[in-house]
């Protein structure tokens, strides 16, 4: 992948619960069947309004044509919504937590924090839907200016929090112990090295 | 449906069209709408494929979704063209 550094490997990928995209897809399904309800109502109203032309001329083909266009547009919108959902993802690698925020088709932001910079990971459950679905927001706080990362509506939030804490601890130990060297054979003197190896 | 029928329909809906100055026939209007919609569809499909290829990891599930999408687009477009042709809209 383009955004991965040398030697970096993805350990886990996290997406929002599928319920949130399912809601959108159900809406598009509703839009697909809506003309079957709207067209008959339109005919009834047009007849009662005295538009004799509509009942006298066969406009079926034109309606079918219009519905085809409508269906094509809804089809494309549904796949665009799914793409936005699928590409909105968090990756936990052996070095960083990467947040890819895909809010629209041409609206994409990628940000990351180093695992060894993470100070705390916590879970927040908000509202009925999150409780009902068993999902939660995982909040990751860092020491630097990166601030706070929130993994929204994550499935298995408790396991994810544990995993991030564990990987963060590993990264911290690896990074900081690799920068400590033992000097002289006398009393042990530990000096932190300023430059990473 | 011919152009005269469409004009009658428009007149009954309160829209008045001067037959002598109308530059487009009903068939041409439908043809223009079809071209426009298929053009937008092609552009959006290109954008979707670009996203799927660039950011989608190229996994099997993503390929499956692509197949479903293009089968759907193909079937609907074919239906549009067939309906328009069969009923002499174009």
Pick out its properties.
heterodimer; A: alpha+beta; three-stranded antiparallel β-sheet; B: 90 residues; mainly alpha; 0% strand; elongated
What does this structure look like?
The complex is a heterodimer of chains A (197) and B (90). In chain A, 46% of the residues lie in helices and 29% in strands. The model of chain A has no long low-confidence stretch (mean pLDDT 81). With 197 residues, chain A is of the alpha+beta class. Chain A has helices at 19-48, 52-56, 60-87, 127-133, 157-177, and strands spanning 10-14, 89-93, 96-104, 107-114, 118-124, 135-142, 148-155, 180-183, 189-192. In chain A, the strands form 3 sheets. A 4-stranded antiparallel sheet of chain A has the order 1-2-3-4. By secondary structure, chain B is mainly alpha-helical. In chain B, 74% of the residues lie in helices and 0% in strands. Chain B is elongated, with a radius of gyration of 19 Å. The interface between A and B is medium-sized, with 31 and 35 residues.
Judged by helices, strands and strand pairing, the structural class of chain B is mainly alpha
How would you sum up the major sheet of chain B? none
Task: Give the overall silhouette of chain B.
Answer: elongated
Radius of gyration of chain B: 19 Å
Question: What is the string of SSEs of chain B from the N terminus onward?
Answer: HHH
Number of helices of chain A: 5
Portion in beta strands of chain B: under 5%
Give the averaged pLDDT of chain B, no decimals: 77
Largest interface (C-beta under 8 Å): A-B, 31 and 35 residues
Biggest sheet layout of chain A: 4 strands, antiparallel
Number of strands of chain B: 0
SSE-based structural type of chain A: alpha+beta
**Which oligomeric form is depicted?**
heterodimer
Strand content of chain A: 25-35%
Please count the beta strands of chain A (DSSP E, at least 2 residues each): 9
Total helical segments of chain B = 3
As a whole number of angstroms, the C-alpha radius of gyration of chain A is: 27 Å
Helicity level of chain B, as a percent range? over 70%
Instruction: Kindly report how far apart the N and C termini of chain B lie.
Output: 10 Å
Strand order of the largest sheet of chain A: 1-2-3-4
